[in-house]
Amino acid sequence: MTNTTIFQKIIQGEIPCEKLYEDKLCIAFNDISAQAPIHYLVIPKKPIPSLRDCTEIDKNLLGHLILVGQKIAEDKKLSNWRTVINTGAESGQTVFHLHIHFLSGRAMLWPPG
Ligand code: 5GP
Prior knowledge:
There is one protein chain. The chain is an alpha+beta fold. The chain has a single domain (6-104), classed as 2-Layer Sandwich (HIT family, subunit A), CATH 3.30.428.10. The protein contains 2 helices and 5 strands; from the N terminus they run H-E-E-E-H-E-E. A 5-stranded antiparallel sheet has the order 1-2-3-5-4, with helices on one face. The longest helix has 17 residues, at 59-75. 21% of the residues are buried. It binds guanosine-5'-monophosphate.
């Protein structure tokens, strides 16, 4: 997998985004096609294609991504949200750079479609 996904271009500043947070490990921004009133993504700067490609070495990074998403939710005063990681095309993954969806602001159905 190359580093030329749309998210890699966002990380490199080649494509604009509505940025919510950034540090040396990750960046968070609003989803361009929001599926809920609040829908943002937290992505690592490390070009990991999907959760399937994570290893023990990524353990702290994965925890960091989730906690960054939680902090943004707290800043937005959210008390309910859904966290989603699509892994593989059949699961709905369309961008092959690991990302965590955070969705909120409406009632969610279960099971998801
Ligand atoms: P996936 O389907 O891979 O789990 O999620 C990819 C997400 O990235 C989708 O929700 C899609 O709307 C979002 N997305 C795709 N291209 C862009 C873009 O250029 N900018 C932003 N902000 N989000 C994007």
